[in-house]
Amino acid sequence: MYAKTTLLDFSEKILKLLEDTNIFRQASCIALYYSIPGEVQTAAFLEKWFEKKQLLLPLVVGDDLRLLPYKGKETLKPGAFGIPEPVDREIAIPESAIDLIIVPGVAFDRRLNRMGRGKGFYDRLLSTLQAPKVGICFDFQLQETVPVEPFDRKMDMIITEKEIITG
Q: Exposed, middle or buried, 86 (CB in 10 Å: 0-12/13-18/19+)?
C-alpha cells in the first residue's frame, strides 16, 4: 500500500484537477464529503474553499444522508460512523441549489460506475439530485469493472491523480 504522505500528495493532485474543471469553477454550491482514511483527503480542500463557495457535507439521518452547510472544522462533530458531520442541523439547503456533488467510493470503473461501502447512502442521495456527479478516487481504485446493481448511480466524471474520465 502507499504511505500516508503519498496519498496526501495524490489527493492534492486530484483536487487540483477538480479545481481546474469548468464544472467546479462554475459551481457555487457544492456537496462533498469529509474524508476517512483510504479516501481522497478533503480536509484541506474544505478549508480552502468554504469561504469562497457554499460547501455542503452529509449528515447521516437513519438510512439517508442530509446535506448541510460546512462552516469550518470547529462546527463539526463525529457522527454515526465516527465521520465528522455538521453540528448545525437546522439549516436546510434545497437540493435544487446544489450545482455539483463530489462523491467518494471504494472503487470506480471507466464506464463511470461507482462501488460504495454497501449501505446505499450515496445511491439514495444521488437518486434525488439533479446536479452533476463527480467521483474522486486514487488511480489504484480504478477497476476494469465494478459490480453494478439497478439502483446504482453512474458518475458524470471520475477524477484520479492521473486522469479525468468522462462519458
A: buried
CB atoms under 10 Å from CB of 84, counted, come to: 19
Distance between CA atoms of residues 30 and 20, nearest Å: 15
Distance of CA 164 to the CA centre of its chain: 15
Q: What is the pLDDT of residues 30-63, one digit of tens each?
A: 999 999 988 999 999 999 999 999 999 999 888 8
Predicted local distance difference test score (pLDDT) of residue 3: 66
- Which residue is associated with the grid cell 442541523? 89
Average pLDDT, the chain: 92
The runs of H, that is alpha helices, within the chain are: 4-19, 22-26, 43-49, 121-126
Q: How far apart are the first and last CA of the chain?
A: 30
Task: Catalogue the long-range contacts made by 14-17 (C-beta closer than 8 Å, 24 or more residues apart).
Answer: 14/40, 14/136, 14/137, 14/138, 14/159, 14/160, 14/161, 15/40, 15/42, 15/45, 15/136, 17/159, 17/161, 17/164
Q: What is the pLDDT of residues 5-31, one digit of tens each?
A: 799 999 999 999 999 999 999 999 999
